[in-house]
Automatic annotation (TrEMBL):
Record note on quaternary structure: Homotetramer.
GO molecular function: xanthine phosphoribosyltransferase activity
Similarity comment text for this entry: Belongs to the purine/pyrimidine phosphoribosyltransferase family. XGPT subfamily.
UniProt keyword annotations, A-Z: Cell membrane, Glycosyltransferase, Magnesium, Membrane, Metal-binding, Purine salvage, Transferase
Pathway as given in its UniProt record: Purine metabolism; GMP biosynthesis via salvage pathway; GMP from guanine: step 1/1; Purine metabolism; XMP biosynthesis via salvage pathway; XMP from xanthine: step 1/1
Its biological purpose: Purine salvage pathway enzyme that catalyzes the transfer of the ribosyl-5-phosphate group from 5-phospho-alpha-D-ribose 1-diphosphate (PRPP) to the N9 position of the 6-oxopurines guanine and xanthine to form the corresponding ribonucleotides GMP (guanosine 5'-monophosphate) and XMP (xanthosine 5'-monophosphate), with the release of PPi. To a lesser extent, also acts on hypoxanthine.
Domain Phosphoribosyltransferase: 10-148
Protein name: Xanthine-guanine phosphoribosyltransferase
Annotated positions binding 5-phospho-alpha-D-ribose 1-diphosphate: 38-39, 91-99
Organism, scientific name: Sediminicoccus rosea
Residues given in the record as guanine binding sites: 95, 138
Predominant location category: membrane
Length: 159
């Protein structure tokens, strides 16, 4: 289990995705966006909207079962995008960089962008917005819901 959690709300995700779009704007034009499903789907939709890009391709890589990492499995390769030249790959984050390595091997000339990056995966990304520490688990809005939390005082153990 992670040492700490970083909760991302829908608002924050929208803001951070737009911040990524700003960084990518002058690096185009892009032939299209390749979303790494599933985590990259919503960021890719927001970025494609901001960059006025209508062509969206997908590649699906499964590397984690909840917080447990396994061997990366490509369950759907990209149908288009050739060697990736002129294409923009979007994922929600890089953690260890395992997923990024697999996708980069399939699309070696694409530009790889994520919203969040942990130190181990950072060298594999061309553009990102926010760095978080390696021992932090990012909680995305599609994996969470708002719930009651007891007052701090009630959660304290007696001294
Ligand atoms: O840098 P890494 O250590 O490879 O971790 C990052 C990848 O892990 C998560 O995907 P996951 O395998 O959970 O699949 P999902 O996007 O379908 O949820 C996340 O969306 C990234 O794609
Ligand atoms: O920190 C994370 N949050 C959500 N999914 C992930 N997949 C790898 N690392 C993470
Ligand atoms: Mg993913």
């Amino acid at each position: 289990m992670a040492q700490r959690y970083f909760t991302v709300t829908w608002d924050q995700l929208h803001r951070d995705s737009k911040a990524l779009a700003w960084r990518l704007l002058d690096l185009g034009p892009w032939k299209g966006v390749v979303a790494i499903t599933r985590g990259g789907l919503i960021p890719a939709a927001i970025i494609a909207r901001e960059l006025e890009c209508r062509i969206i391709e997908t590649v699906s890589v499964v590397t984690y079962d909840e917080e447990t990492k396994g061997e990366p499995r490509v369950v759907k390769p990209p149908a288009a995008a050739g060697d990736g030249k002129g294409w923009l790959i979007i994922d929600d984050l890089v953690d260890t960089g395992t997923t990024a390595k697999v996708v980069r091997a399939m699309l070696p000339h694409a530009h790889f962008a994520t919203i969040y990056a942990k130190p181990a995966g950072k060298p594999l990304v061309d553009t990102f917005v926010t760095e978080v520490s390696q021992d932090t688990w990012i909680l995305f809005p599609w994996d969470t819901e708002v719930q009651f939390i007891p007052p701090i005082a009630k959660g304290q153990v007696a001294k």
